[in-house]
């Protein structure tokens, strides 16, 4: 084949040398706009795993790179007058120029044709090529020549950064966080050769402008950074190699995702690699890794399919299919890390103590979890667990410390034995709103299973507030008696507390039981519906009446009565349901609230009636018991509420006396398009907890102890609500404790023999070699 690589970065050079090494008969050229052995930039970082792949594919260049790179395991954080260090993280740093020089030299040794100082405008400049590699970087002319094909999605991120260097050597990947009168700045620092370290300084746009950095030249910016980071520099100076950039050298990161990576231009197949196809923020140092991995995978596919040019279409199709998955994974992790640094000042640095700030930073990408930290640096993590346990009020001895999810949590005068909550999950099994033996067994077994707080499903304040005829209610004494039966059992048989979630279905009421047709209107026996506005949930749903003041007064009286009855049950916790498109949620969301009176329009107006209900309930609910609010923190549809809106509502409920926000999302509109994934709703909890300053519950795709420990330890939530895993396993909390080797968590005395056998079986399975 005739192959032309346009752009002599890591992707183009590494692909060229691999293909030439494996099939010397290929004619391969690399065309680069810069001079020979010249490049811009300081050091680049990639992981130990990338080096393993490079050793496998080309031991010769890998050996040279390993001789030149700097390897370190430690991360050190300077924050609020402290220095914290942890080990076991496995980074590789090398000068970008040195890396490219090694790859250039290797290409020359393999007879790859290197052409320098040549600016390529288009892939059409090489009509005889069978394959053209668009590896010409973020501003790729090859990609930009076919925007309708590649469909690039480029987003400019808000933070500013400047890429500098220093001759001071650092023996750890160092982060330094400094607060100024206008906001926080952070430095990302790592050594990449025996003389030089990369020194990236980052801040918000607001701080950048407030300090006048937009008006400074590079020398002025360098002087500012040297003064700000004088402690970590310890007398060393900073340098720039971006003199080719006019004015300020502060940049914005551009996140790139392409809809397609390859194209046939009529003569040649064109494929994108590296930054031309995708970018990943420097916060996890993954740009070079992605470029190298692109080159390896494209080469691998030629090895599998064959190196004849008629195989190119199949190769490119499979290459993109495989790489898109891994790139999405890395980009998601990089996005999480990037967003952490974008809000680090107001969300974390201002609020968290140094140990928890360090933990939050280490787990910012969500690729590193609690137990992964234990593998990396057991001593550091156990020290952190000891600190967290002491902050939770535990006396810490020499035995293994309780991990965060099993530490107690106190709100008002109610103390939970641990941080795990059984989510309210509709069972659709009540008659006339009355709890029965099924509910007692269902909820009682979860209490015996070790959770700290047990919620029944949304409990409706009147018969016409129900979602379905099978929903729980709390409007009469018969219902109170059954609720009290549950509460008394849980209190007598376990350490768990009991919560009641009061709500009103609104426009989502009068529907069939879930297994008969979820959200589908009743064929008979329906009741009239009310909502903020006359907007039906489904096209075939009943059109609700837009509530007038008389309706509001009646429903407020219903909530007051149900709260009074909740007090009689002896329950420990009360929650107001303002989420998922039900009645009070319909006031909060602009999708369902189209009113033009004092209950529509602004955030304050839309929250007016839900706040009225909340205040009336809080006045009745005992002052020594907590009261929370469940919010839909994202409507997942155009024109709906976003996390920014949810934060405003959270602040309003906090000011009204709410103790905690239960952070869910969605189910407001059938047009929603949620972005699911592991812990996909936890960022909403993180934002509200740390920006609004109110405790939160995280919920959604939390399925193992590692998830819960990571969330709580990082301060992303105070409690974790677990739903579906509790349906599959009533003793989820006890089993998760055993799985992480925590044998000190008590089981019900009736189950002790099962505890011993369960733990023994886990230990045996862990030591048994897998079958070959």
From TrEMBL:
FAD-binding domain sequence ranges: 4-328
Keyword match Oxidoreductase: yes
PANTHER family attached to this UniProt entry: BLR3436 PROTEIN, NADPH DEHYDROGENASE C23G7.10C-RELATED
Native organism: Rhizobium lusitanum
Listed name of the protein: Anthraniloyl-CoA monooxygenase
Record-linked Pfam families: FAD_binding_3 (PF01494), Oxidored_FMN (PF00724)
Keyword terms: Monooxygenase, Oxidoreductase
Annotated SUPFAM superfamilies: FAD/NAD(P)-binding domain, FMN-linked oxidoreductases
InterPro entries, sorted: Aldolase_TIM, FAD-bd, FAD/NAD-bd_sf, OxRdtase_FMN_N, YqjM-like
GO MF annotation: an example: FAD binding
Residues annotated as domain NADH:flavin oxidoreductase/NADH oxidase N-terminal: 405-733
KW Oxidoreductase (keyword) present: yes
């Amino acid at each position: 084949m005739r192959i032309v690589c346009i752009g002599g970065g890591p992707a183009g050079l590494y692909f060229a040398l691999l293909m030439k090494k494996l099939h010397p008969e290929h004619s391969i050229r690399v065309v680069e706009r810069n001079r020979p052995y010249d490049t811009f930039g300081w050091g680049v970082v990639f992981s130990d795993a990338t080096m393993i792949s490079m050793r496998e594919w080309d031991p010769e260049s890998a050996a040279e790179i390993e001789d030149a790179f700097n390897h370190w395991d430690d991360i050190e954080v300077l924050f609020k007058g402290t220095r914290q260090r942890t080990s076991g993280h496995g980074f590789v740093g090398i000068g970008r120029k040195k890396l490219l020089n090694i790859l250039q030299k290797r290409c020359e040794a393999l007879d790859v044709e290197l052409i320098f100082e040549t600016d390529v405008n288009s892939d059409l400049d090489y009509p005889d090529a069978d394959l053209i590699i668009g590896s010409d970087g973020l501003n790729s002319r090859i990609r930009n020549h076919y925007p309708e094909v590649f469909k690039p999605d480029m987003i400019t991120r808000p933070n500013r950064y400047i890429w500098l260097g220093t001759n001071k050597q650092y023996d750890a990947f160092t982060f330094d966080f400094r607060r100024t009168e206008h906001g926080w700045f952070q430095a990302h620092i790592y050594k990449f050769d025996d003389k030089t370290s990369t020194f990236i300084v980052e801040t918000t746009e607001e701080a950048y402008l407030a300090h006048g950095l937009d008006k400074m030249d590079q020398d002025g910016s360098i002087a500012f950074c040297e003064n700000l980071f004088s402690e970590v520099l310890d007398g060393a100076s900073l340098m720039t190699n971006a003199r080719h950039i006019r004015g300020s050298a502060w940049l914005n990161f551009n996140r790139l995702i392409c809809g397609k990576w390859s194209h046939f231009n009529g003569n040649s197949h064109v494929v994108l690699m590296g930054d031309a196809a995708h970018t990943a923020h420097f916060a996890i140092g993954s740009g070079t890794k992605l470029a190298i991995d692109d080159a390896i995978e494209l080469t691998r596919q030629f090895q599998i399919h064959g190196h004849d040019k008629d195989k190119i279409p199949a190769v490119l199709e499979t290459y993109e299919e495989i790489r898109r998955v891994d790139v999405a994974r890395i980009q998601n992790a990089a996005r999480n890390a990037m967003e952490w640094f974008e809000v680090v000042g107001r969300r974390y640095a201002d609020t968290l103590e140094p140990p928890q700030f360090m933990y939050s930073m280490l787990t910012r990408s969500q690729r590193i979890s609690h137990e992964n930290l234990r593998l990396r640096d057991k001593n550091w993590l156990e020290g952190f667990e000891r600190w967290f346990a002491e902050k939770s009020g535990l006396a810490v001895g020499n035995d293994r410390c309780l991990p965060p999810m099993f530490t107690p949590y106190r709100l008002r005068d109610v103390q939970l034995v641990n941080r795990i909550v059984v989510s309210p999950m509709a069972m659709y099994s009540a008659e006339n709103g009355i709890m029965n033996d099924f509910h007692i067994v269902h909820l009682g077994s979860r209490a015996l299973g070790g959770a700290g707080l047990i919620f029944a499903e949304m409990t409706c304040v009147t018969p016409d507030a129900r979602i379905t005829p099978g929903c729980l209610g709390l409007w009469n004494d018969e219902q109170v008696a059954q609720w009290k039966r549950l509460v008394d059992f849980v209190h007598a048989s376990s350490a768990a507390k009991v919560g009641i979630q009061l709500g009103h279905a609104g426009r989502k009421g009068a529907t069939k039981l879930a297994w008969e047709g979820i959200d589908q209107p009743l064929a008979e026996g329906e009741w009239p519906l009310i909502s903020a506005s006359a907007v039906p949930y489904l096209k075939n749903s009943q059109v609700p009446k837009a509530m007038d003041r008389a309706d509001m007064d009646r429903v407020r009286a219903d909530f007051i009565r149900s709260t009074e009855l909740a007090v009689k049950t002896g329950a420990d916790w009360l929650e107001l349901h303002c989420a998922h498109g039900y009645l009070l949620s319909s006031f909060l969301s602009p999708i369902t609230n189209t009113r033009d009176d004092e209950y529509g329009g602004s955030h304050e107006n839309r929250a007016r009636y839900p706040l009225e209900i909340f205040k009336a309930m809080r006045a009745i609910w005992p002052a020594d018991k907590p009261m929370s609010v469940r919010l839909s923190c994202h409507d997942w549809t155009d024109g709906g509420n976003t996390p920014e809106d949810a934060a405003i509502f959270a602040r309003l409920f906090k000011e009204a006396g709410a103790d905690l926000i239960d952070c869910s999302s969605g189910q407001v509109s059938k047009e929603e398009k949620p972005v699911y994934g592991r812990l996909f709703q936890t960022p909403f909890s993180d934002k509200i907890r740390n920006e609004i300053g109110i405790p939160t519950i995280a919920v959604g795709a939390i399925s193992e102890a590692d998830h819960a420990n990571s969330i709580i330890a990082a301060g992303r939530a105070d409690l974790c609500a677990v739903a579906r895993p509790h349906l599959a396993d009533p003793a989820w909390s006890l089993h998760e404790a055993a799985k992480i080797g925590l044998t000190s968590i008590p089981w019900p005395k009736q189950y002790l023999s099962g505890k011993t056998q369960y733990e023994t079986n886990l230990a045996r399975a862990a030591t048994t070699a897998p079958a070959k």
